Amino acid sequence: MPRDLTVIVLAAGGGTRMKSKTMKVLHPVGGRSMVGHVLHAVLATDPNRIVAVVGHQREQVGPHIQQLVPDAVLAVQEEQLGTGHAVRVAMDVVGASGQTTGTVVVATGDTPLLTGDTLREFVHEHLASQAAVSILSGVVDNPFGLGRVVRNDEGDVLAIVEEKDASDVTREIHEINSGILAFDAAFLTDALPRIGNDNAKGEFYLTDAIGLARGDGLTVSAHPTDDVVQTEGVNDRAQLARAGAELNRRIVERWMRAGVSVMDPATTWIDADVVLAEDVTILPGTQLLGATVVGEDAVVGPDTTLKDTEVGAGARVVRTHGELAVIGAGATVGPWSYLRPGTRLGARGKIGAFVETKNAVIGEGAKVPHLSYVGDAEIGEGANIGAGTIFANYDGVAKHRTTVGRHAKTGSNNTFVAPVAIGDGAGTGAGTVVRRDVPPGALAVSAGPQRDLEGWTLARRPGTDQASAAAEALAESPAAVDHADDPTDD
Ligand code: UD1
Ligand code: CA
């Protein structure tokens, strides 16, 4: 890599064809913004500086870029007068920072498939060719709308001609300008003021620099990429979806080659920043999003969405929706579980069917197997929460915490009215409403003793199917009605 490399990322255009209040380069694909993907590729060239040209919605685009690359320099292009003008605005910043030699690469913010390898290789080729300008070109079936690379009979590059300015003969050329160009900085500085806007669009075309270099007798080279898809810009939402699908296809393929089993690549979506270990298995209908990490031998899916979630080695996650959660090694989750932010399930723990958790730390080997809501809770290791338990964390004003001790075993259909603590090794009976702390080792019961009001159905529901069923059963084995409670006294 050259020791003085500047990369200019053009991101000032309006992107009107997106028909969106969100600026084009901020639209997400594969878990990053489009410009985020480009910056990722740019960083791989190890540049000395990155200059981003911003204009439209720069109050959103600028901070976004600087959040991703804190030392990126922003150059504001107030009016979008063309790519040549945009680069001139950027070079004013570069010149002010003292660079007059070295290499300047220009890329655009709307090519989410661009990789660092491609960009790095292009910079190498540019330097090796000792050209004043190099074009990353590509041969495409349908060149419509793109700048054509015009060569002479010897194959030397003469110019880039834009679609609107092209003759019928030039329009037949299938080698196009990807929009990614590399310049000798001194030549670029000299050429920019010489670019005019006397063309079909009335814009300052950066691509005019190629013709100027030829006129100066300098070398121009074009390097056709064999993966032109990487350089395709996204202009509308149909192209956005196509780019997203292609990016995903590439990511899924990469993980399969790295030792991940993906049963159905077509219904598996993996964001660019997800990390998977060897021998992970992903079942159909699964989305792994954001900064999700999955450990060795874990099985995720089918029909699971995990965002920014950590899955431990050997865990099993079935039909689950999780966000900002941590699932311990060997734990089991699902089916139909909802893990909200702050859920931390310990190793070999269980969150079972129809269980929702939030801000819940569930210890090693602890289980919440069925039909429960666990909010703002800490459950000790080895504890078991009975089916249908509600951690009542919200009193209508504030949220409160519940703790359940180690190896506690709570009964079915309990309500824990927070703030409340259930001690280590304690238990609760079925249907208990826990409003006060339960001491370690105690069994808490709050439901009253069962009373049987015998004869109640016959007295209160005469003539119903319920009454005839009761009467038939009683006729077969008559109950001792003499000590029954009076069914009318409650
Ligand atoms: C440009 C190239 C064309 C190439 C194509 C590849 C020129 C004149 N033409 O055409 O040869 O085949 O890209 O996609 O360069 N931008 C600014 N400020 C401006 C104008 C543009 O920041 O004043 C940004 C846009 O936001 C966009 C990029 O530069 O990201 C390209 O500009 P655009 O107008 O779309 O150029 P194309 O017509 O696509
Ligand atoms: Ca474009």
Automatic annotation (TrEMBL):
Q: Where is the active site?
A: H370 (proton acceptor)
Q: Which InterPro entries match?
A: Bifunctional_GlmU (IPR005882), GlmU-like (IPR050065), GlmU_C_LbH (IPR038009), MobA-like_NTP_Trfase (IPR025877), Nucleotide-diphossugar_trans (IPR029044), Trimer_LpxA-like_sf (IPR011004)
What residues does the MobA-like NTP transferase domain cover?
A: 7-144
**Record key words, sorted:** Acyltransferase, Cell shape, Cell wall biogenesis/degradation, Cytoplasm, Magnesium, Metal-binding, Multifunctional enzyme, Nucleotidyltransferase, Peptidoglycan synthesis, Repeat, Transferase
Pfam families assigned: NTP_transf_3
Per UniProt, the cofactor note for this protein states: Binds 1 Mg(2+) ion per subunit.
Region of interest (Disordered), ranges: 462-490
Q: Does the keyword Cytoplasm apply?
A: yes
Known catalytic reactions: alpha-D-glucosamine 1-phosphate + acetyl-CoA = N-acetyl-alpha-D-glucosamine 1-phosphate + CoA + H(+); N-acetyl-alpha-D-glucosamine 1-phosphate + UTP + H(+) = UDP-N-acetyl-alpha-D-glucosamine + diphosphate
Which residue intervals make up region (Pyrophosphorylase)?
Answer: 1-237
Q: Which cofactor does it need?
A: Mg(2+)
- Bilayer-crossing residues are none
What is the superkingdom listed in this entry's lineage?
Answer: Bacteria
Metabolic or biological pathway: Bacterial outer membrane biogenesis; LPS lipid A biosynthesis; Nucleotide-sugar biosynthesis; UDP-N-acetyl-alpha-D-glucosamine biosynthesis; UDP-N-acetyl-alpha-D-glucosamine from N-acetyl-alpha-D-glucosamine 1-phosphate: step 1/1; Nucleotide-sugar biosynthesis; UDP-N-acetyl-alpha-D-glucosamine biosynthesis; N-acetyl-alpha-D-glucosamine 1-phosphate from alpha-D-glucosamine 6-phosphate (route II): step 2/2
| One MF term in the entry's GO annotations | UDP-N-acetylglucosamine diphosphorylase activity
NCBIfam families, per the entry: glmU (TIGR01173), PRK14352.1 (NF010932)
Output the PANTHER family linked to this UniProt entry. Answer: BIFUNCTIONAL PROTEIN GLMU, NUCLEOTIDYL TRANSFERASE
Oligomeric and partner information: Homotrimer.
Q: Mind telling me what this protein is named?
A: Bifunctional protein GlmU
What taxonomic ancestry is recorded?
Bacteria, Bacillati, Actinomycetota, Actinomycetes, Propionibacteriales
